């Protein structure tokens, strides 16, 4: 049995998804719709929905999706039965860098099981042959047991609709194993907007979580993400002083190595 929580502001998407879930899920369920045309951040909406849920398994779901396989609910409940599993999703990555980051940036660390559209235009079909153990998950689909959500509720200090997913899933990953499922197939009809507001949300939320204690630092990965971070700061035309302050904050030899650390000091 599954409680599906949706923060909704686009009725045409919600109506199509509601019908699609009824036709495909294959298990008893309820939908908790939080009408949210900009009334609150998604963390507040999701926590409100979870408080109303009557079942022990929760799915926090974007409304601009449809499911492409039958009985996906049964596959999800199988994964949630394991007390070792934390959050189940359909896209994410296994490495958490020291800097603010986008989970999809580094090839071979990210796993995706989504058919991605931009409105009605097919962009790319991503598939997985097997489930993958990961750390950070994309917010399009986040499922967990009620007890896991209770221990790690969505962080309402994160306002708006960005960065909440990384924060939520990474905090849980220190205690549980997060998974990208290969058996839940969905189409997603928007790509999000990677603008300055999105990037500033990544920066503001980064201090809210830490990489799992079990993660071993990979300096090549760290240098890649530090460089991407610097590129974003330039792309969004951050003021010179603010840019410098942020780069120095994350310029740690423990992560990027002493050569890069010294080079960054004297740029």
TrEMBL record:
It comes from the Bacteria. Residues 18-181 form the Streptomycin biosynthesis protein StrF domain. InterPro entries: Nucleotide-diphossugar_trans, StrF_dom. This is Streptomycin biosynthesis protein StrF domain-containing protein.
């Amino acid at each position: 049995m599954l409680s599906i929580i949706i923060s909704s502001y686009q009725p045409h998407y919600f109506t199509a998804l509601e019908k699609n879930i009824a036709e495909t899920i294959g298990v008893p369920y309820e939908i908790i719709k939080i009408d949210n045309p900009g009334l609150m951040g998604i963390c507040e909406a999701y926590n409100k929905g979870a408080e109303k849920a009557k079942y022990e398994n929760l799915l926090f779901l974007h409304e601009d999706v449809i499911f492409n396989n039958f009985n996906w609910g049964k596959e999800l409940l199988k994964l949630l039965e394991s007390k070792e599993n934390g959050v189940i999703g359909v896209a994410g990555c296994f490495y958490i860098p020291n800097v603010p980051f986008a989970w999809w940036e580094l090839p071979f660390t990210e796993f995706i099981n989504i058919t991605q559209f931009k409105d009605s235009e097919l962009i790319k079909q991503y598939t997985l042959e097997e489930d993958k153990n990961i750390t950070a998950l994309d917010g399009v689909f986040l499922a967990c047991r009620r007890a896991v959500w209770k221990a790690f509720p969505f962080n309402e200090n994160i306002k708006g609709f960005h960065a909440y997913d990384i924060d939520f899933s990474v905090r849980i990953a220190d205690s549980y194993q997060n998974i990208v499922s290969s058996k839940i197939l969905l189409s997603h009809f928007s790509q999000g907007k990677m603008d300055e507001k999105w990037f500033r949300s990544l920066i503001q939320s980064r201090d809210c979580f830490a990489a799992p204690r079990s993660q071993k630092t990979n300096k090549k990965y760290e240098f890649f993400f530090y460089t991407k971070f610097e590129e974003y700061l330039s792309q969004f035309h951050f003021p010179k002083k603010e840019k410098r302050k942020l780069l120095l904050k994350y310029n740690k030899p423990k992560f990027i190595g002493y050569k890069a650390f010294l080079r960054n000091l004297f740029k």
